[in-house]
Amino acid sequence: MENSRKENKIVLTMRHINKNFPGVVALQDVDFTLRAGEIHALMGENGAGKSTLIKVLTGVEEFETGEIKIDGMPHSIINKSPQEAQANGISTVYQEVNLCPNLSVAENLFIGREPKKFGAIDWKTMNKKSKEVLGSLDIDIDVTKTLDNYSIAIQQMIAIARAVDMSAKVLILDEPTSSLDDGEVEKLFTLMRKLKAQGVGIIFVTHFLEQVYEVCDRITVLRNGALVGEFEVEKLPRVRLVAEMMGKDFDDLAAIKKSGEEKKKKSEEVVIDARKLYHAGTIKPFDIQIHKGEVIGLTGLLGSGRSELARAIYGADKADGGDLFVKGQKLLIGAPIDAMQAGMAYLPENRKEEGIIADLSVRENIIIALQAKKGIFKQLSRKEQEEFTDKYIELLQIKTANREVPIKQLSGGNQQKVILGRWLLTNPDFIILDEPTRGIDIGTKTEIQKLVLRLAGEGMAVMFISSEIEEMLRTCSRMAVLRDGWKVGELGEEELSQEGVMKAIAGGGSDE
Amino acid sequence: MSNAKKTLRKLTEYKLFLPFLCLALVLLINVIKTPTFFAITINNGVFYGYIIDVINRASELVILAVGMTLVVAASGGTDISVGAVSALAGAVCCFVLSGGEQSVNEYHAPYILGVLAAMAIGIICGAWNGFLVAKMKIQPMVATLILFTAGRGIAQLITDGQMIYVRVDHFKKLGAFIDGVPLPTPVFAAIFVVIVTMLLLKKTALGLYIQTVGINAKAARLVGLNSTMIQFLTYTYCGLCAGIAGLIITSRVYSIDANNAGLNMELDAILAVALGGNSLGGGKFSLAGSVIGAYTIQALTTTLYAMGVSADQIPVYKAIVVVIIVSLQSPELLKIWKNIKKKFGNDGARKKVA
Fold first, then answer.
1. Is B353 on the interface with A (CB under 8 A)?
2. DSSP per residue over B302-334, as a string?
3. What would the pLDDT profile of A330-374 be if each residue is shown by its tens digit?
């Protein structure tokens, strides 16, 4: 990693970039420099301007003033579209893989530039070339199978292979690791290092600090649309990085639990009692009891049935059998509305697809669940709606120009807060939070974790699902462990340690 | 920025600005080409004139556009059966009132029964469409294609392949004038449907529900909405609108011609929704936009007639104008325009610095 550092030539410079959105300065005089053969982390809280900077660079958004220069081009460039950016040597791979799941791997690699023979696609050459391209990156898969045969991780690597094969100067990876498990992340890193050795400049956007320190050479930090600085990784300790990102002394995450702990008195009142509940194909029959005022964590590997267990309780996937008792009353759930009427709330894992109603305003997004609960004829008055909205904008410190802004214009963290507000407004007894902090900056993460503990302190039962064990340890008072669709055990307060959880997830002795 | 500029900017940002602009443009051309366009004369106590004609003739289209708007918003698809359904509803109405005979000079059943039968058949057809789209998850275009083709056939079955005439003065009133009222009755029918729909949307949470379902059906379900039911309801409502439109169409000619009643009106209705600035992909919608769109289309047709364009050439001119109007509202064009403006704006700024 330490090899060629300073002598590396610069492949990309961005100077004095300015960009305004209506009412908000998105980027203010931002500089960014990328060298060949380096992995450069772009960091900042939500709304710091990371995404905007990437969008400006790749031509998704226009910028007002500033200059972008690419190595080998005499003039500064302005990309008007991602295609143009690609032609100029800048490729992006997003968190959500932008490929076609129903086409073969080879087709995905060569879509739009298929090798032709007599005017028709030359399948043989295409498949052969695909194998070569993937082979050079140590990805060994059947290229004639359709993409949806492969995991997200592999799909992402294919997207990267495609990007690199098309233009190899600058590769942008926007939150590539958020939906990968540890092993997959490691594979991705190997791939990144390989590309780095080939001289590709990689911009790595992520929220995971550990990953930055594992794989990056430099870090550029943005805050509130302005440049904080460019740092070399080894000269910037973690705590200082966080401080730079947040612009204030870091509110130590470890301190949260202590403040919450004294409130955590065990209540005997059972809110949710599931018996032999299951959903065919995703979650095997499970029993679970959740008490008033406790935070129960669901842990397990990706695909172990964490989310599915929660979905079966809420009725997001209708349970195929078993009984559910809410506060001692048997409840038949046909659709989520039944669960809501019984006092449940559910913040889904996939914010974009199942959470936000993109074109509707912050106000409408907040009141929609309460409105649905009240029914179509009892419309909340405009005044009530505005009061509720203002209350939660204030309470959750949602950063928005005003309450009528479409939610899609908010940053990820603020969107998540809006959805949290939506559910808190319904005043639930039991709330399921599925990956509430995914893709969210540390500051907001801490806020959400604190909120979870406060809600539990006020008597709400909380189900917390997260792939970050640390986060779970900080917030949960008990954990249920899942493996391959089975609920395999529970960990009490005294067993909650990183090691204990890991062991439980792996299943003592089951792995050779 | 001067005050005038500010007002102008505010005006252009108003979401119905473009639909209104298009309508105004069409009307403006009229004034230039046909100076008498806005002239209104009074004959036998009722108003006559091109503009009255536009408002009158547009009524069925306005009613259909209202239903279509909701369908588009909730399902991101269109109901292409409304023309056929209105013919079917008209046929049922005439059949009930004539007692199955080909031509009658007095009602064979109470008028209200005919009206209710037409509305009921509209609702049934709409519910059928809704069932296919919302419950069976068939693509809207395909689902409504069934009644689009079968609707007129069923109507022919009912009328036994003949035209049915109801030569009763009372029957003609819905499509013409009520004694002592100077404006044509269809105008009131259209206004009534629009107002009732607006009240439904504003006074209940229906408007919010429809938009939510149209934008993100998955999320809608998770926040407790019954997406299936809401889509079903919009199709049913659209069918009811088609039924009402069918009543007006039949009343105008006091007869039903199942082959031609409401022919191609589904296309105009869809166009009205688009002209109103609504996305045919569903989600956020403006009912007022669609209504303006409907009047724009009718104004255009009447204009062309007034200019002496023959009926068989009208579609060509209509197509040209529609292309212009639709591209005026296209965001791509707006982008190009902004780019041009920015170029000039930047030049100006640079000159100032220099």
1. no
2. HHHHHTT--TTTHHHHHHHHHHHHHHHT-HHHH
3. 999 889 999 999 999 999 988 888 999 999 999 999 999 999 999
Burial class (CB in 10 A: 0-12, 13-18, 19+), B32: exposed
> What tokens appear for A339 in the block?
């669960």
CB B26 within 8 A of CB B299: yes
CB B157 within 8 A of CB B31: no
Check whether B107 has a pLDDT greater than 80: yes
Please name each of the domains of chain A with its CATH number: 10-246 (3.40.50.300)
Flag whether residue A337 sits within 8 Å of chain B, measured between CB atoms.
Answer: yes
Angle at which helix A382-395 crosses helix A362-374, to 10 degrees, equals 120
Residue in chain A lying closest to B345 (CA)? A64
Which residue reads 């109405």 in tokens?
B93
Inter-chain CB proximity B224 and A346 less than 8 Å: no
ipTM greater than 0.90, yes or no?
no
Which residue from A346, A359, A376 is facing B209, i.e. has the nearest CB? A376
How far apart CA B190 and CA B187 sit, in angstroms, is 5
| CA distance to partner chain B, nearest, from residue A177 (Å) | 25
| Structure token digits, residue B45 | 């106590």
Beta bridge partners of A299: A481
Task: Say if B206 is an interface residue toward chain A (CB within 8 Å).
Answer: yes
| Strands A39-43 and A270-279, sheet pairing | unpaired
Instruction: Give the pLDDT confidence of B248-269 residue by residue, as tens digits.
Output: 999 999 999 999 999 989 999 9
Which candidate, A43, A27, A34, places its Cα nearest to that of A9? A34
* CA A438 vs CA A194, A429, A504, B45, B149: distances in Å: 27, 24, 23, 71, 50
Strands (E) across chain B are located at 41-43, 46-48, 103-104, 164-166, 255-256
Task: Please give the structure tokens belonging to residue A470.
Answer: 């640390």
